[in-house]
Amino acid sequence: MARYVALLGSINVGGNRLLMADLREALEREDFEDVETVVASGNVLFSHDERPSRALAEKIAYIIRDRFDIDTFAAVRSKDELQAAIIDNPFVKDGAPNFVHTIFLAEPLDKEAFHAFASRYEGPERLAAGVMEFYVDFREGVGRSMLDPAMKKAKVIKSRATARNVRSLQRILDKMDN
């Protein structure tokens, strides 16, 4: 059995309330083992027969849609993939852990469109491209940032996404070691 994390989007925000105990129970009924939630915002650790992360993400999203009528996106990553999401983030070394984020995507990043946007964007955030993610340093805080509306207006990201700050990612990674 391999160990994974599912980072769920739109859980316990915007009216999509879901008790983590109910989520754990639903996943355990569908052959997920050692299910554990980390914080009540949709971070789920689990063990499962090895399969591509995308297949597991689709399975989890289907279960949540079917059982709880919540249309969500799940970014599923192995321990190594989660560790890479921290290590590959160029802002980890000099940014504040609660302001430096990895934005996980459902589809590969269109690097050309991302770089074109980043070269024109005038906000205070620092941006960097990944493969199935991109990295942001919200230097002045997430709450005041105009990055999300600007990206939506420019239609830079065409897939669903969910964000986690480096502090949360490290906490999840540490739990995967236990």
From TrEMBL:
InterPro entries: DUF1697
Any Pfam family matching the protein: DUF1697
Protein name per Swiss-Prot or TrEMBL: DUF1697 domain-containing protein
Organism whose genome encodes this protein: Croceibacterium selenioxidans
